[in-house]
Amino acid sequence: MSAQTLPDLPFPGHDKLLQALDAAVASGDEHAITAALRGTLCRMIRDRDVALPACVYEPIDDHYARREIYRSPIHGYSVVAMTWGPGQGTPVHDHCGLWCVEGVWDGELEITQYELLERDGERFRFRAAGGMQAGPGSAGSLIPPHEYHTIRNTSADEVAVSLHIYKAPMECCSMFVPQEGEWFARLDKSLDIDDAH
């Protein structure tokens, strides 16, 4: 993909946000980068000069929306806005080895971390290892191998929006389908990008 075709949507505060993300991504190893990005994302969510494109507030009826609004031609990171309609969420999933920083931009999301206890081929045993209700301005990070989690909008009538900064474009992941007890079956899942305008 050439630099001319990389996603780059205009929005208020575009340059301010991207300069802050570039500085954070250049800050060192993955632990330093994700720590810097968490702080940056929390600041940018609260910054009145920065507003995400209007399209990210438009839910899609049959799935949560993933809209890539920027991809860095220099650092390679990807910025994806996710729109969560009432009750929409993910199964237990990983990030295929990519670090990620996730921040709640609007609304509230329930995030549950999972601990991998054991593996038997393509069967994985997980246990919920803590959860939180995350509101606007909160951010967290995932660094493999601690990357298993679910995200859900538990509201019956409100839309939630989150912003996700990935090390690189995340085009697939493993999702885990419940079997018996704490056991899950792993399935490969390709991740689509929804239209952004």
The count of helical stretches stands at 2
| Mean pLDDT over all positions | 95
- What topology, given as strand order, has the largest sheet? 3-10-11-6-5-8
The low-pLDDT segments are none
Backbone shape:
globular
Helix content: 10-25%
Structure class: mainly beta
Distance between the termini: 19 Å
* Number of strand segments: 11
Our estimate of the beta-strand percent is 35-45%
Work out the radius of gyration.
16 Å
> From N to C, what is the helix and strand string?
HHEEEEEEEEEEE
Please describe the biggest sheet, giving its number of strands, its sense, and whether it closes into a barrel.
Answer: 6 strands, antiparallel
GO molecular function: dioxygenase activity
Protein name: Cysteine dioxygenase family protein
Organism: Marilutibacter chinensis
Pfam family, one: CDO_I
Please characterize this protein's 3D structure.
With 197 residues, the protein is mainly β. It is built from two helices and eleven strands, in the order ααβββββββββββ. Helix 1 (14-25) runs antiparallel to helix 2 (30-46). The protein is globular and about 50 Å long. One of its GO terms (molecular function) is dioxygenase activity. Pfam families: CDO_I. InterPro entries: CDO_1, RmlC-like_jellyroll, RmlC_Cupin_sf. This is Cysteine dioxygenase family protein.
Properties at a glance:
mainly beta; five-stranded antiparallel beta sheet; globular; RmlC-like_jellyroll; Cysteine dioxygenase family protein; RmlC_Cupin_sf; oxidoreductase; dioxygenase
